[in-house]
Amino acid sequence: MSGLSVGVDVGGTFTDLVAVAPSGAIVSFKVSSTPADQSEGVETAVRRLPPSEIPVASIIHGTTIVTNMLLERTGARVVLCATAGASDLLELRRQDRAALYDLSAHHPPALVPPALVVPVDERVSPDGVTRPLTPAAAADVAQRVTALAPDVVAVSLLHSYADPTHERELATAIRRALCTARDESDVGEGRDVVCSSDVLPEIREYERTATTVCEAYVRPGVGRYVARLASRLSAAGFPAPSVMASGGGTAPAEEAAKHGASLALSGPAGGVTGAAYIARTLGIDRALTIDIGGTSADVGLVLRGEPLLEVGGSVAGVPIALPRVLVETVSAGGGSLAWVDDGGALRVGPRSAGAHPGPVAFRRGGTQPTVTDAHIALGNIVSTHMSDGVALDIAGAIAAIDGLAARLNAPRDATASAIISIADAAMARALRRVSVERGVDPRECALIAFGGGGPLHACGLAERLDVRRVVVPPHAGVLSALGLAIAPRRYGAAASVMRQVDELTDDELVRITGSLAARATSAYAAGGGPATLRMKHTARSRYVGQGHELDVELDPPCDAACIGERFAVRHRERYGFTLDRPVEIVSMRCTASSAPGEVRLERNGSSVWLDGLLYDHGGRIDDTLRGPMPIGLPDATLLVASGWAARALPIGGWMLERRP
Predict the structure, then answer these.
(1) Helices (H) and strands (E) in the chain — how many of each?
(2) Beta bridge mates, 274
(3) Full DSSP string of 203-266
(4) Taking the alpha carbons of 272, 537, 59, 23 in that order, is the dihedral positive or negative?
(5) 117: nearest Cα among 89, 137, 158, 97
(6) What is the mean pLDDT of the segment spanning 331-356?
C-alpha cells in the first residue's frame, strides 16, 4: 500500500471514517450522516482527514443505497420478459406465508407489477430447446417492451442457466428496438437489458428471476449515486471510490454500479470483515458479531477466523440469491423509538429517530424517547458529548423517559431498563438464528461487539446467550469502516454444472475450474487490482433430491471424489447427519481476490484510545475492571455489567468475562 487506505461506512446516524497508513497506523472519526444524499456525508468525512504527507491511495465505501431503494421502493421502472406460461413467478413466490401465525400479513409487492411483465413465446428445458424463439416472436416482444417505456428491461427465461441463447437473442432485439424508438443519444445508462444468465446462471427460476429483477431495479440508481460520489471526490482532489459488495470484497465504483444487487449488504459486510480480522488477531476461532448503530443492529458469524459466506437471503422482502457475508439485520438501535401500543404494552422499534431528528438527547428536534435516551436516563452513558460535536441534552432525555414512564405508570429506571431489555431480546433472537440454525452453539463462541451501541449492550446480550467471553475491539465505534479499509478487492465467476460427483471426470473438473479461474482473473486484471491475487473455488453441492445446497471449498485442488467427501463432512457439521445418496454439484464459483490489508493494533500505539481510558480512571491504566461500570471510549461507551470483569487487551480494546 503506497498511501492511505480510507474506509467510509454510512450509517443511519453517523458516517464513520477510518484511514490506514502504509505503516498500519489508524486515524478514525465520525460525522453526521446525510440521508438525503449519502455522498455529501462521505465527502464531508473525507475532507476532514487531517493534513498528511501521505496521499490517499484508495477510498472504500460501504453504502446503504441499495437497501434504501428496496425498502422505499424508489428504484427504476422495470419491464420483465419471462417465458409464456411462467410469467407469474414474482407473484407466486414460493407460496410461503409472510408470517406463519398472522393470516393478515402479506409479502411486500413484487418489484415488477403484472402489467409490466411481457410473456415470451419460447421454451427451453434442461435438456435443450423445445420451442424456438423465432425472429418474429423476438421482434413482437421487443415492440411490446418499448411501448411500456421501461427504464431497464429484465430478461429471465426458463432454464437459461443451461442454455442462454434465447435470452441473448431477445436482449439484442430489445436493444435494437429501444434504439429505434428513441434518439440514439438518449439510450444510455438506465436503459440496460439485464439477462438472468449473466446475473445468476443457476437453477431455481423464482430466485433467479427475483435476483435479476432486483439488479435491474437498483442499477440505474446505484449508477447515478456512484457517479455523483466520484464527481464529489474528484472535485475535492481524491481518487475515485471503490464499493464493498455483500460478499466481503471490493470493486471500483464504475464496476460495482453494474452489479447493484450485490451491494445490498455493503456496509454490514464491512463490519463482519473487521470483526473477523480482530478474531484472527486474537486467535479466536468462532465468534458471533453484533454491530449496533443508530437505526439497526447487524449480527454475523465468524468461523475459522473468516466471515461465514452464504448464497441467498432477502433484503426488504426481495430474494437476492447472490453470495453474501452472513448478516441478519434487526430494527433495534440507539435511535429505535420506544412507544406504547393500543393495548398499553411497551414497544421498541421498528421505527427509528434516524439521523434527523435523532434521539431527544441530540437536541435536533426529537421528542420521542429512544434506546439512547434510556441509557442516558440510567447513567450508562458517561460522556456529555457524542461524535461530530453533538452535545447531549441529559435533562431532555430523562424528561422523555419520564413522560413514557407516566403513560405506563411505572418508575423511570424500570421503564428505561425495559426499553433496553426489549431491544436486547430482539438482537439476541437474531444472534441465535445465525448460530443455532447453522449448527453452531453460541456458548462456544466469543461475542465481538462494536458500533456505537455494541459495547453498551454486549454484556446483556451475552447473558441471554450464555456466552462467557465478550470482545470490545479497538476502534469499536468505527470497526465497520476499518473492515472496509482493509477489505480485499475481489471478483468472481460462476457457472451451472448440474452433475453428480460420480459422473464428473477429473478432466471435466479441471476444465470447469480453469475456465472460471480465467474469467475471474480477467475481471480482476481489468479492475486494476494488485498484481498478487488469491484464487478460491467452491462447489455448491447437495444430495440428489435435496432442495438446498452447501458450499464446498475445492482449495487446495481436489478431485471429484474429494468433493463428495468434503460435502459429507460439511453436511454432518451443519445438520448432524449424512445420507446414503449421490452428491450432486449444482454450480461452481471462483473468486480472485487480493490479500486483506494489515493494521497496527497495539494499546500503547493508540493514544486517543488510551486517553479515553486514562482520564476515566484516575490517570492510570487498570488492567482489570469489575462491573457495574460504564467506560467512555473515543467513539462508543462500554458498559461492564455486574458480574463481569473487563481486561485491557494489548491490541487495545477489552476482553470481558463473566465472573464465576
Answers:
(1) 17, 33
(2) none
(3) S-HHHHHHHHHHHHHHHHHHHHHHHHHHHHHHHTT-PPPEEE-TTS-EEEHHHHGGGGGGGTTH
(4) positive
(5) 89
(6) 89
SS3 readout for 585-644: EEEEEEEEECCCCCCCCCHHHCHHHHHHHHHHCCCCCCCEEECCEEEECCCCEEEECCCE
Give the H/E segment covering residue 86.
none
Position 374 pLDDT exceeds 60: yes
What pLDDT score does 282 carry? 94
Distance CA(549)–CA(543), nearest Å, equals: 8
CB 62, CB 481: distance < 8 Å: yes
Q: Is 444 exposed, middle or buried (0-12, 13-18, 19+ CB in 10 A)?
A: exposed
What span, in angstroms and rounded, lies between the C-alpha atoms of 513 and 495?
A: 10
**CA 538 – CA 306 distance, rounded (Å):** 15
Alpha-carbon span 514 to 508, nearest angstrom: 10
Residue whose C-alpha is closest to residue 275's, from 260, 263, 290:
290
Q: How far apart (Å, rounded) are the C-alpha atoms in residues 334 and 592?
A: 38
Calpha distance 156→357 (Å, rounded): 43
**d(C-alpha 406, C-alpha 403), whole Å:** 5
Q: How far is CA 406 from CA 175, 343, 347, 509, in A?
A: 63, 16, 15, 69
Residue 562 in 3-state DSSP?
Answer: helix
In whole angstroms, give the CA distance from residue 40 to residue 487. Answer: 23
User: pLDDT per residue over 397-447, tens digit each?
Assistant: 999 999 999 999 999 999 999 999 999 999 999 999 999 988 899 999 999
- Distance, in Å, from the CA atom of 271 to the CA atom of 277, rounded to the nearest integer, reads 10
Is the alpha carbon torsion for 631, 636, 642, 645 positive or negative?
A: negative
H or E segment and range at residue 87: none
Can you tell me whether residue 130 is helix, strand or coil? Answer: strand
Whether 320 and 215 have beta carbons less than 8 Å apart is answered as no
3-state DSSP of 335-378: CEEEEECCCCCEEEEEEECCCCCCCHHHCCCCCCCEHHHHHHHH
Judging by beta carbons within 10 Å of its beta carbon (0-12, 13-18, 19+), is residue 358 exposed, middle or buried?
Answer: buried
Grid coordinates standing for 573?
457439521
Residue 163 half-sphere exposure toward CB, CA atoms < 13 A: 16
Alpha carbons within 13 angstroms on the beta-carbon side of residue 340 total 12
From CA 14, how far away is CA 267, in angstroms rounded? 13
For residues 514 and 525, what is the distance between their CA atoms, to the nearest angstrom?
A: 16
pLDDT in tens, 168-192: 999 999 999 998 876 544 444 446 8
pLDDT surpasses 80 at 639: yes
Q: How many residues does the chain have?
A: 660
**How many angstroms separate the CA atoms of 399 and 382, rounded?**
18
Strands 624-626, 629-632: parallel, antiparallel or unpaired by DSSP?
Answer: unpaired
Residue 292 is given by DSSP the state E
What pLDDT sits at residue 196? 97
- Take residue 338 and report the three cell numbers written for it: 420506544
- CB within 8 Å of 250: residues ≥ 6 apart: 60, 242, 243, 244, 484, 487, 488, 489, 490
Q: What is the pLDDT of residue 391?
A: 84
The x, y and z cell numbers of residue 11, run together, are 450509517
Domains of the chain with CATH codes? 4-69+223-263 (3.30.420.40), 77-189 (no CATH), 336-421 (no CATH), 490-593 (3.30.1490)
| pTM score above 0.85 | yes
Q: How distant, in Å, are the alpha carbons of 32, 40, 419 from that of 358?
A: 11, 19, 17
